[in-house]
Design a protein that fits this description.
It is built from two helices and eleven strands, in the order αββββββαβββββ. It has 182 residues and is mainly β. A hairpin with a 2-residue loop joins strand 7 and strand 8.
Length: 182
C-alpha cells in the first residue's frame, strides 16, 4: 500500500511542476503588428509594454502569458498615422490607455503550440489565439508569437475609418521576445 502511494505521488509530481518564469529583455524584444492602408502593407510596433511570461513546453497547463501594452507608444514610421492611431477613432488612449492579453490555456495543433487567451482593447474583450514558437537558449529562450485580429471587432477605426477597402480589417500581431530565466 505504501509503495502504491509513493508510485502515485511520483507520477503526479511532474504534472505539478511549475513553468519557468522569464524576464523579457526589452532591448532585443519587439511587439509589432501589420495591416494595410490603401492596399499597401505597413508595419508598426509598440515602444512600451510589459509581459509576465511563465512557460514550459513540456507542461503547457502550467504556462501563462500576461501582456499589457501602452497604446500611446504606437509607432509606424508615418507621422500622420502615428498621430491618428492614439486618437478617439482608433485606440482612444484618453479613455483606454492600455491593451491587455492574458492566456486562458495552451493547446497543441499538430507540431504547433497555440496560446488561447483574451484580448481587451478599447474596453472590448474577445478571444484570441496566437501561434507560439519557443526555443531554449542557455538560461533563457526566444519566444515568437503570431496571430491576427479583426480591428473592427474591437471598435478600432470608427466612422470613416471603418471602411475596410481603405484600411484592412485584419491586423497581424507579431512578437519576438528574448527571455532570461528569473
Amino acid at each position: 500500500m505504501k509503495r502504491l502511494a509513493i508510485l502515485l505521488l511520483a507520477l503526479a509530481l511532474p504534472g505539478l511542476a511549475a513553468a519557468t518564469d522569464y524576464t523579457v529583455q526589452p532591448g532585443t524584444s519587439t511587439l509589432g503588428f501589420s495591416s494595410t492602408f490603401q492596399g499597401e502593407t505597413f508595419q508598426g510596433h509598440f515602444g512600451q509594454w510589459n509581459a509576465a511570461i511563465s512557460y514550459d513546453p513540456a507542461n503547457l497547463a502550467a504556462s501563462k502569458f500576461d501582456v499589457t501594452v501602452q497604446l500611446a507608444s504606437v509607432e509606424t514610421g508615418d507621422s500622420d498615422r502615428d498621430s491618428a492611431l492614439p486618437g478617439e477613432a482608433f485606440f482612444d488612449v484618453a479613455k483606454y490607455p492600455q491593451a491587455h492579453f492574458v492566456t486562458t490555456g495552451f493547446r497543441k495543433n499538430g507540431n504547433q503550440v497555440i496560446a488561447d487567451g483574451t484580448l481587451t482593447l478599447r474596453g472590448v474583450s474577445k478571444p484570441v489565439s496566437l501561434q507560439v514558437g519557443f526555443a531554449p537558449q542557455g538560461s533563457g529562450a526566444t519566444l515568437d508569437v503570431s496571430g491576427a485580429v479583426q480591428r473592427l471587432d474591437f471598435g478600432v477605426g470608427s466612422g470613416e475609418y471603418a471602411d475596410t477597402s481603405v484600411i484592412g480589417a485584419e491586423v497581424k500581431i507579431t512578437a519576438h521576445l528574448q527571455l532570461a530565466a528569473k
